[in-house]
Amino acid sequence: MEEIDRAIVAALTADGRLSYTDLAEKVGLSVSAVHQRVRRLEQRGVINGYTARVSFEALDLPLTAFVAIRPFDPSQPDDAPVRLAHLPEIDSCYSVAGEDFYLLLVRVAGPLDLERVLQEIRTSANVTTRTTVVLSTPYEHRPPKVALDPAGPHRVRGASAESAGSQPG
Amino acid sequence: MEEIDRAIVAALTADGRLSYTDLAEKVGLSVSAVHQRVRRLEQRGVINGYTARVSFEALDLPLTAFVAIRPFDPSQPDDAPVRLAHLPEIDSCYSVAGEDFYLLLVRVAGPLDLERVLQEIRTSANVTTRTTVVLSTPYEHRPPKVALDPAGPHRVRGASAESAGSQPG
DNA sequence: AGTGAAATCGTGGCCCC
DNA sequence: GGGGCCACGATTTCACT
């Protein structure tokens, strides 16, 4: 039953432009039924949207780096994410536990751009930076093992199907 | 001219299922012309493919962590990426400069799963791990500022296509 | 929830500019 | 490289189950 939803999500993560016709064939249902299920997956928020995957090399952004940041003055209000949002070189911003406050993923054209972006990060958010350069990317954005909650991300009650439950306490 | 390619890539990263009709309207070209340009962008490798964006919360993978790994015995051959590829919880694997050898992005259902995955990483690749838990994600996978090379990443005149990027020296 | 059919619209090849 | 045309296929809705 929801086996089919898993198959649909897996197929659409592999190829986001799959037609409903092809999708229907893959999962062994009629076109209408598949269409209906996709609509439900979208409005439940399981599928958030669709994007084209771009080659960062082709976009002249061959250099990737992780930048861990820490406020220069920890007593100041911490709004680094919004202060940094204007920098297009920042792909992602994670708030993390541990010694650092945030971990940024940045993509630039080369070392000189990285230097410039680091300076902009430091001055924009009043932080210190610790940078880890990515040398190569064996794999990235692999499709997750799809294990659907029966009714989406709602109801915080029961533990889920797999792996005996995320944190009981 | 290539201003239009930038607009196309930007539009398709924002919505990968945009029809050529809508795309044509957005960039102010005919449907045929847009179709032609998208085909070229695809075969030049600027656009690698299309995927559905899924909510990891909805997929019951609410816990994200970065795992830095380092070989237990640095004299052994280093094939950690292939030894770890079978673990579906690993979203991405980056080879990095710095103290660690690789940085992994993992997504799991909760702390207990994280513990299990860390054990599997250590035993599968014979490495030590240092884990940074993600508390929240202010933003992720933002569309890059699109700056197209005139003819894609091809022919760098002697150097190979990859990493021949822009360090003017 | 799934099916099949029907109207609408998008797609993908061709030819002309 | 852009525009327009046209046959085919995909999308989307509806009545039925």
From TrEMBL, chains A, B:
GO terms for biological process: response to amino acid. Pfam families: AsnC_trans_reg, HTH_24. InterPro entries: ArsR-like_HTH, AsnC-type_HTH_dom, Dimeric_a/b-barrel, Tscrpt_reg_AsnC-like, Tscrpt_reg_AsnC/Lrp_C, Tscrpt_reg_HTH_AsnC-type_CS, WH-like_DNA-bd_sf, WH_DNA-bd_sf. The keyword Transcription regulation applies. It comes from the Bacteria. GO terms for cellular component: cytosol. The keyword Transcription applies. GO terms for molecular function: sequence-specific DNA binding. Residues 139-169 are annotated as: Disordered. Signal peptide: none annotated. This is Lrp/AsnC family transcriptional regulator, leucine-responsive regulatory protein.
